[in-house]
Amino acid sequence: MTTTATQPAPTGSSLIRAHAKAQILEQLRIPVAVISSVIFPALALLFFVIPQQVIVQDPVASLTAVAQLGLFGVMSSFLFNYGIGVAEERANPWSSYVRTLPAGPLPSTLARALTAMMFALLSLIPVLILGALLTAAPEAFTSGDLPWWRIPMSLAVWLLCGLPFLALGLFIGYLCTSKVAIAVTQVVFFPLAFAGGMMLPPFLFPDWLNTLSLFLPSRAARDIAVQSMSGDGMHATSILCIAAWTGVLGALALWANRRDQGRRFR
Q1: Are the beta carbons of 70 and 127 closer than 8 angstroms?
Q2: What confidence tens digit (pLDDT) does each residue in 152-174 have?
Q3: Which residues are CB-contacts of 135 (< 8 A; sequence separation ≥ 6)?
Q4: Handedness of CA 176, 83, 20, 24 (dihedral sign)
Q5: Measured between alpha carbons, how far is 47 from 238 in angstroms, rounded to an integer?
Q6: Contact (Cβ atoms closer than 8 angstroms) between residue 170 and residue 253
Q7: What is the pLDDT of residues 79-89, one digit of tens each?
Q8: Spatial CB neighbours of 36, under 8 Å, sequence gap ≥ 6
Q9: Exposure of 124 by Cβ count < 10 A (0-12 exposed, 13-18 middle, 19+ buried)?
Q10: Pick from 170, 174, 180: which is nearest to 264 by CA?
Q11: For the chain, domain boundaries
Q12: Residue 160 in contact with residue 245, Cβ under 8 Å?
C-alpha cells in the first residue's frame, strides 16, 4: 500500500511573494528600462536644478526641488509600471492562464504594487544623494530647523501620494492594448507632471494654469510632498483633492478590470 504526500495549499503571503519575485525578475531582464526609470529624476535634478545657484544655495528651495523630483520619480514608476506593464501582461498567454487560477487577482495585484513601490523607492535614492551632496538642503536639518525623522516620513508620504497614479496606470493598462498604452501613458504623464508643478514651481505659473493645477492629482501630490519635507503644515484642500482622485481613479481601475475580465473570460 502506497501513500502519496499532499503538499499544503499555498498561503496568501506565499502567493504574493511568488508573484513579486516573478515580476521583479521580469523587470530586471530589461536593465535599460530599470536604469532609465531609476536615474531619470536624478538627471532632471542634475541638469535643471543644480546649475541654478539661487535654488541650490537656499535650503528651503533645495528641499522643494528634491521633493518635486522625488515625487516625479514615484509618479513615473507607478504610472509606467502599471499602464504599460498590465497592458503587456494582458497580451501574454501565460498571464491569461494565471488569471484563470483559483488564487484570484489579489496576490498578483498586491505583488505588482510592492514591485512598483520598490522601484519607486530606488528612484528616490539618487535624488536624495544628489540633493544632500550638491544643494544646501542638509542645512535645514543640521541647523536644527527640521528634525531628521522628516526624511523617512517624507519617503513614505511620497509613496502614498503615488496611489492615484497607480490607479490611473491600472485603468490605462486594462483599457488599452500594449502599443496604445505606451502612447497614452506618455501623453498623460508629462502634462500631469508639468501642470502639477514637478518640473516648474507653481509660483511661476500664469494665474489660469495655477488655478487649473489645483484640481489635478499631480498638484495635490506635489504640494503634500513639499509640505512633508519642508515642515509646512499640510493643507486640507490638497489632502481632500488627492483622496478624491484616488477614489475616482480606483473606481475606474476596478471597472476597467471587470470589463476586461468579462470580455476575455466569460
Answers
A1: yes
A2: 999 999 999 999 999 999 899 88
A3: 49, 50, 55, 56, 59, 62, 65, 66
A4: positive
A5: 29
A6: yes
A7: 887 888 888 88
A8: none
A9: buried
A10: 174
A11: 29-265
A12: no
Compute the distance between CA of residue 56 and CA of residue 48 in angstroms, rounded to an integer: 11
CA dihedral for 168, 173, 177, 183, sign (positive or negative): positive
Tens-place pLDDT, residues 134-148: 999 999 899 888 898
Alpha helices in the chain (DSSP H): 12-28, 31-44, 53-56, 59-90, 93-99, 106-134, 139-142, 150-161, 163-175, 178-195, 207-213, 217-230, 236-265
Which residues, 6 or more positions from 13, have their beta carbon under 8 angstroms from its beta carbon?
none
Q: How confident is the model at residue 1 (pLDDT cuts 50, 70, 90)?
A: very low
Report how far apart, in Å, the C-alpha atoms of 55 and of each of 51, 60, 96, 135, 223 are. 9, 8, 50, 8, 18
Q: Going by C-beta distance under 8 Å and a sequence separation of 6 or more, which residues neighbour residue 100?
A: 265
For residues 31 and 44, what is the distance between their CA atoms, to the nearest angstrom?
A: 20
C-alpha cell at 61: 528651495
Contact (Cβ atoms closer than 8 angstroms) between residue 88 and residue 142:
no
Grid cell listed for 154 = 517624507
Identify the CA nearest to 150 among candidates 78, 213, 59, 216. 59
Phi–psi pair at 145, nearest 5 degrees: -65, -35
Sole residue written with cell 519635507? 229
To the nearest 10 degrees (0 to 180), the angle between helices 163-175 and 236-265 is 20
- The SS3 assignment for 100 reads coil
